[in-house]
Amino acid sequence: MTSLQAVYFDLDGTLIDTAPDFYSVLNNLLAEHGRPAVSYAAVRANVSNGARALTELGFGLGPEDDAFDNYLNQLLDAYAGHLAVDTRLFEGMADTLDWLDQHGLPWGIVTNKPERFTLPVLEGLGLATRVGAVICPDHVRQRKPDPEGLLMAAGRDGVNPVACLYVGDHLRDIQAGKNAGMATAVAAFGYIDADDDPRGWQADHLLERGDDLLPLLKTLTSGSLA
Fold first, then answer.
1. 3-state class (DSSP) for residue 223
2. Would the keyword Metal-binding turn up in this protein's UniProt record (predicted)?
3. Lesser CB count within 10 Å: N end or C end of the chain?
4. Considering 12, 21, 169, 212, which one is annotated as catalytic?
5. Looking at residue 2, what is its pLDDT?
6. Among residues 95, 169, 164, 86, which one has the least CA distance to residue 132?
7. Which pLDDT score is estimated for 149?
8. pLDDT of residue 103
């Protein structure tokens, strides 16, 4: 890639660990309905697939069931009131964002998480005034793996997509990054399904831990940052 101009992140499972809050919200809702709790491991494995997947997990219903939308909406409303309670940046990400800020490199978010939840989470974590472009599904016609959101983010930040890195924990993230012409990195520490092999996603880089990202960024910018 050419000299790095910006870094973009997927949100859940990449930049921040939201599984603890989803775990609390889902099990509280299940308890209200007299249903058994689900394990933290099961919740974590389904977070990247969104609230619909968590509704299926907890209530054993599919979208075709009459009660599905009601439970889904209850889950979303409950989550909206429990944002950034136990959600945290993944290990190493605070130092990475500090380093990007110190070197004047823009960083942003391109996520399939709706704006209704994304902006309050960023606010709650103290990131809202630091982040550059934030692109949610509300802002695009096509979700990832379509590159629309990433290209929109680069346009807003005034950077060349081919000089950007996109970090994500799902195959669609890597596909979106490639479709946008960006370099890509897999957050293998994120919400990877047990049946998935991120090493087969053909990303440019694989991050075993969150604190692997900063050394990578220093390598990518070696000689270009004085």
1. coil
2. yes
3. C
4. 12
5. 59
6. 164
7. 98
8. 95
